Amino acid sequence: MPPATDNDIAPIVDTSHVHTLQRNALGTGGIVFMVISAAAPLTIVAGVAPLAILIGGVSAPLVYTIAGIILAIFAVAFMAMTKHVKALGGFYTYITEALGKAAGLGASLVALVSYNALQIGLYGMMGTAGHDLLQVEFGIDVPWWLIAGVGIAAVFVVAWRGIDVGAKVLGVLLVAETLILLVLAVAILAQGGAEGITFGTFDPANIFTPGMFAVMGMGFAAFMGFESTALYREEARDPERTIPRATYISVVFMALFYGFIVWTIVVGVGESNVVGAAAENTAGLVFATASDYLGGWAELVMYLLILTSVYASQLAFHNAINRYTFSLARDGVLPRRLYDTDPKTHSPVVSGLAQTALAALVVAVFAVLGMDPYLQLLLWVNSPGVVGIIVLQILTCIAVVVFFVKRPQLARRWYVLPAAIVAGLAMTVILVILCLTFDLLTAASPLVNGLLIAITPVTFLVGVVLAVRWKRTRPDVYARIGGHRDEAETIDA
């Protein structure tokens, strides 16, 4: 999206309903559904965990719990700052407040690119899963891009109906995919697994291996989007309590749920056989396990729920992207039209149309070029998004430290700064490991991997350069970078 011109700048204050989000629309549960649905539990367990097992071995379930612990520490620091920074914008706002407008604008562009990459790449998985399901189960050969196109339209329509409608849809879909995984886990444990209930996953000899370090990035990728709770501040009921509560619930749930479910898969296949089984049938490992322990019906249901899991994730990311775009347009960074909301639903409909058009364009390009929807659209487009979000989390840790050090008069718990430092260092290590083992995420050549990794620093640099330039040429826009306002613009639902 191009930067705004002077005539496109949104006014600092506009009480018109076409520039407002829906107030008091989301409680803790609705935000939790948004966040966990973005992470797509069934997609992670069935689509990514087998690869983690193949590379990391029987202790692979722990990468999710370890990542969850680090992100919970990060959340402590992140949430401490939300009490003092009210403006809509998530990472963009916090980084601007502490590190300056140049860093903030760079972070905003990284966030916009990263969330779009995470959302749009998933259309490759949706197209692949839908194509395979229709072909195998019903003998119908439907092009993957047509299925992806239907998904793009369905995401826009539900998001357009309003954030409360989206939360209800996500709640239903999330319960369904969570339930099937829990039923499978109980069945495996009740039947004693393939080799009994074993605990080799927790053996230090299996934990401290090169393979485990190599898949730590996959653990963090499973939590992508959890920090988007802050983007719903304007639409949340009692945001001072709702936002932190939803953040902590989401992180703890995912850390425990992922670790437990993937451990039961290891038990179900057998510790001595699971790595070989993952190598032989990576994509179908969890589905085959469901068929073995629950019957063929479960395998079919799980294939159907993979589609709804991907859809739920795309809808959640679509909503987060729209709110980032909305906040940037309100601050004058993006064209004013992206700041418009629907008069009835108060959803950021123009931002939604822009994101939908971008998704359709990317899918069309991959389809026309005959590129693989899974190996290229999903893996190549998603992976820079993972890098970008981790970079933003590291910058946010630095921002928390700088923010409170400069403002010693602000009340905070003693553990906030240590939490920010520990989380920032841990995520920096993870980022280095991820970049060194990037081929595990992309299955691409070194050249392609280098280009994909470069997207994040280049995007950040573009934002910094724009901010420096705007300070001289467009001081009004520069002054509004970061969304500094006393109160967010909202209306009663």
Can you tell me about this structure?
The structure is a single chain. The chain is mostly helical. It has a single domain (6-492), classed as Amino acid/polyamine transporter I (Up-down Bundle), CATH 1.20.1740.10. Helices cover 72% and strands 1% of the residues. The protein is built from 20 helices and two strands. The chain has helices spanning 28-39, 41-56, 61-82, 91-99, 101-138, 144-160, 163-190, 204-207, 210-214, 216-221, 239-269, 274-280, 285-294, 296-330, 349-368, 373-406, 416-436, 439-442, 446-473, 475-480, and strands spanning 21-23, 490-492. A two-stranded parallel sheet has the order 1-2. α4 (91-99) runs parallel beside α16 and α14 (296-330) packs across α15 (349-368). The protein is globular.
From the structure above, extract its key features.
single chain; 493 residues; mainly alpha; Amino acid/polyamine transporter I; two-stranded parallel sheet; 20 helices; 2 strands; 1% strand; globular; disordered N terminus; disordered C terminus
Secondary-structure map with pairings?
Blueprint: E1 21-23, H1 28-39, H2 41-56, H3 61-82, H4 91-99, H5 101-138, H6 144-160, H7 163-190, H8 204-207, H9 210-214, H10 216-221, H11 239-269, H12 274-280, H13 285-294, H14 296-330, H15 349-368, H16 373-406, H17 416-436, H18 439-442, H19 446-473, H20 475-480, E2 490-492
